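Input (structure):
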């Protein structure tokens, strides 16, 4: 028997009496992508010790994220409460649907399980599907991919003046509360500038209004000539004012000083920027710089360029530049040294340049 009382659904179970479901929506007119709270509460007519509920809502065009599960006793009657944060992605959705499953274990099944009968290695359940009355919605439309919530956006450059090929750290940070799922990286590639991206760093926790916290994108920019970050406008839909808001990031010029490419071979390693502290980007920048150095090193090995006067190996102050010059020599005698430097670099155990100079002299 099933009886509908407003938003309450009443059903009768043969084993444990009855139960009632109440479904409550924080809003019946959500905007598209707006996170809102949905609360489902099942109140049993008794303690219902052998009963549990399975609920995993799925609906095309709707995102469900479990926020909380609460179980309590009210006048010796069992109450189970499920809370979900919901966001509607498809503006044509008109109803929310929920289909819980009531699973009840009989006394005989429990007894057989406890005494360990061979054919009772796990509990047996009597399942009762529940089809709750769908909850009507009127979804207010917004354009595809709109960011909904209350947010701030900042952009940070660690320097605006740099030598050619030296990385500049760029950082974007979005902070606030709302639908973080729709937020895309605000970075726009710059013509003539290589960029290397780290994985986004997201630090959020779920609230009734969606995720609250921040997400950070970090990039290393490597250029040979002056470049400019163009003015950018970031738009989001603010739920408090129910209007679109814009955050404008002003244009920013970066002055790049040219360097003598031969000097790259003797340049000592520089300290990393405080903003470039992520391993993957640092390695990517290193590979890019090694590519720029390789041609210079090849020319050194062929005699087109000469480092400092004196012994050939004395002209190098950076192990990796020395490595590329050794490769360009194409001499079998130095092959063991090439392998040694490559191995030390992979393992993060590079020695001083003096060590490799001595090894070179011993080989030649």
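Output (sequence):
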């Amino acid at each position: 028997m099933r009886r509908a009382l407003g938003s309450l659904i009443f059903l009768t179970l043969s084993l444990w009496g009855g139960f009632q479901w109440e479904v409550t929506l924080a809003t019946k007119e959500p905007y598209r992508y707006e996170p809102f709270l949905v609360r489902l509460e099942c109140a049993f007519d008794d303690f219902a010790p052998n009963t549990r509920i399975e609920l995993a809502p799925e609906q095309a065009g709707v995102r469900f994220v479990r926020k909380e599960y609460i179980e309590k006793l009210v006048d010796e009657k069992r109450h189970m409460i499920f809370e979900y944060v919901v966001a509607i992605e498809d503006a044509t959705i008109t109803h929310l649907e929920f289909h819980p499953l009531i699973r009840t274990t009989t006394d005989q099944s429990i007894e057989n399980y406890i005494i360990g009968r061979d054919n009772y290695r796990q509990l047996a359940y009597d399942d009762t599907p529940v089809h709750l009355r769908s909850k009507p919605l009127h979804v207010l439309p917004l354009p595809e991919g709109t960011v909904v919530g209350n947010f701030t956006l900042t952009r940070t450059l660690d320097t605006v003046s740099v030598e050619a090929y030296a990385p500049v750290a760029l950082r974007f940070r979005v902070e606030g509360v709302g639908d973080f799922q729709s937020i895309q990286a605000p970075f726009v590639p710059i013509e003539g500038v290589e960029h290397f991206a780290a994985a986004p760093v997201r630090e959020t926790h779920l609230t009734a209004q969606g995720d609250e916290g921040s997400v950070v994108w970090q990039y290393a920019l490597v250029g040979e000539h002056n470049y400019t970050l163009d003015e950018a406008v970031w738009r989001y839909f603010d739920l408090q004012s129910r209007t679109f808001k814009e955050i404008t990031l002003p244009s920013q010029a970066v002055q790049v000083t040219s360097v003598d490419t031969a000097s790259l071979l003797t340049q000592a390693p520089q300290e990393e920027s405080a903003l470039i502290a992520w391993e993957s980007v640092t390695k990517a920048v290193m590979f890019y710089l090694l590519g720029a150095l390789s041609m210079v090193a090849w020319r050194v090995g062929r005699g087109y360029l000469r480092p400092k006067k004196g012994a050939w190996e004395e002209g190098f102050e950076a192990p990796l530049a020395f490595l590329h010059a050794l490769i360009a020599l194409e001499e079998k005698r130095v092959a063991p040294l090439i392998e040694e430097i490559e191995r030390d670099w992979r393992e993060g155990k590079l020695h001083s340049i003096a060590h490799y100079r001595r090894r070179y002299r011993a080989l030649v």
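Notes: Residues 144-259 form a domain with the Immunoglobulin-like fold (CATH 2.60.40). DSSP finds five helices and 21 strands in the chain.
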